[in-house]
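SAMPLE LOG
Freezer: B-3
Tube label: C17
Construct: single chain, 318 aa
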Amino acid sequence: MPEVASVHTMRALTNLAVGYPTDGFIASRLMADVPVLKQSDDYFIFDAARRASAAKDDARAPGAAANLADFDMTTGTYKCAGHALRRLIPDEERENADPPNQPDIDAVEFLVGSLLVNQEIDCKAKLDAGITGGYTSDPTNEWDDYDNGDPYADINLAINAIEDGCGYTPNVMGMDSKVFRALVNHPDILERVLGGGSNEVPAQVLARALAALFGLEELAVAKSQNNTAVQGQDASMSRIWGSDVYIGYRAPRAALKVPSLGYRFIWRPFSGGNQGFMVSKSRAAEPSAKSDEIVAEKHYDQKVTCTTAGYRLQNRLT
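STRUCTURE (predicted):
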């Protein structure tokens, strides 16, 4: 009987490609985007001391001048650093690529996905450094401890702290998918959302229902991971957002006199589609390389702009 290899030429299937998704990024959902015309500049911080919220003597006698009231105005600085990666597509690879391989599209998705991983890591680091003092806590009982954990109380503690700190009710919460699954299966949460569920009504809690339970507009669930292994070695994956939970007020858009947990300043001349990434294709500079060069880049600066508009609940899983 002839071997399979002698009667069938191996080729790629046209209806299947094994890839690794780059969805589940939440940095853009925790910080509002601000397109800017200059790579670096100042921005105003309005009334950080909340003088507008202070009770003032507004009594005025007939003929007397009104009492003077004022507010504070300070400034901050952003600088949109450049972030770029490139990949070469040799002519040999392009000519030999069988469907469903698409060298240009595959390169763009790979480069943008890699840049998004770095953007995600940077966002978490900025939040961890910017949310300090009374706006970070590590509750004693984790959320996968269904006997002692109290996520409802923990989240409301954070919400109350943000309202006390900046005067705005938080509208967004972000967490890793592992934390989310532990949270939606917590008996207390199930009881509050679905009355505990039943055989007829399975106790499956959607992110929208959970966000609504706490009066939030959005619950962002992260699935992003970082491979820390050296290239060529077996993958060593770690979840970028770990088991921490972030709650905050995110301004609906960049605006004067409105606090927000953070903004992502994006230098407009170097922004485009693909979440603000500029993608270009050119012939490799070295002619003997006989390759096309795909470059993905973005200039941005992610900044915590109101430290009291966010809260970090640490280590929510055992």
